[in-house]
Amino acid sequence: MKPVLIFRHIDFEGPGYLGTFLDKRQIPYEIIAVDAGDTIIRDPGKAAGLVFMGGPMSANDGLDWIHEEIQLIRRAHILRIPVLGHCLGGQLISCALGAQVYRNPVREIGWHEVEVTNTLAAMDWLAGLPSRLTVYHWHGETFDLPDGAIPLLTSLHCLNQGYICGNSLALQCHIEMQPDMIPIWIDNYRDKIGQISDTVQSAEAMQTDLHSRIEDLHRVADTVYSRWIELLGHKVR
């Protein structure tokens, strides 16, 4: 089986729980460390699927590697090679598919609720989960839906939290979190949580009941990732 290629944009925003999920199912993957200067392939056919992680940059930044990733996503989408994006990754997918990425009305940081949309696609991708889910967020921008996209998740403060478009799954929220990742993000992005609000939690609040929250988040991730790997031709047992 060809490997899943996971594009990392900053060293402490790696695949997280997605790596654990793939390891358990013996699905090979390789990390493309864009932050360390790894080359971005041009041919998506070399991979079983493509995954794009988060990062503090904007999909609208005029960086060469952002342009290269957007072009790669566009080619993968045309070839129906599965693509998955988390936060910045979801925004890159949106740009590649012709939608706009822009500043969200508020910054969302911490544990906040999302709602499953009333669509057949959401019933498929999120089968067995409750209609309201508490997931992790760290973003100041958001995306519109590309033509043909079906919304899966929405929230009070960010209309588009996730969608499926062909074989491309874009998420604004973070379902890949592991317990050790959250204090690292807090330390590295502390300037973003200086002003606490209804949508920006304190460092203490984000780490309260952390292991219980992570367990619940992993149940969401297991459901979503299990559905996504079906696109790779992997049968979920």
Rg computed from alpha carbons, rounded to a whole number of angstroms:
16 Å
Q: Kindly provide the name of the CATH class.
A: Alpha Beta
SSE run: EHEEHEHEHEEEEHHH
Number of domains: 1
CATH homologous superfamily classification? Class I glutamine amidotransferase (GATase) domain
How confident overall, as mean pLDDT?
A: 97
CATH topology: Rossmann fold
Main beta-sheet strand count, sense and barrel state: 9 strands, mixed
SS-derived structural category: alpha/beta
Q: What is the count of β-strands?
A: 9
Shape: globular
| Approximate helicity band | 25-40%
Taken as a percent bin, the fraction of beta residues is 15-25%
Strand order of the largest sheet: 2-1-3-4-9-8-7-5-6
Low-confidence stretches: none
CATH architecture: 3-Layer(aba) Sandwich
What does this entry look like structurally?
It is a single chain. The chain has 237 residues and is an alpha/beta fold. It has a single domain, classed as 3-Layer(aba) Sandwich (Rossmann fold), CATH 3.40.50.880. Helices cover 30% and strands 25% of the residues. It has helices at residues 17-24, 64-78, 88-96, 120-125, 181-188, 203-206, 210-230; strands spanning 4-8, 29-33, 49-52, 83-86, 101-116, 132-143, 150-154, 162-165, 168-171. Strands 2-1-3-4-9-8-7-5-6 form a 9-stranded mixed β-sheet. Strand 8 and strand 9 (168-171) form a beta hairpin. Helix 2 (64-78) packs across helix 3.
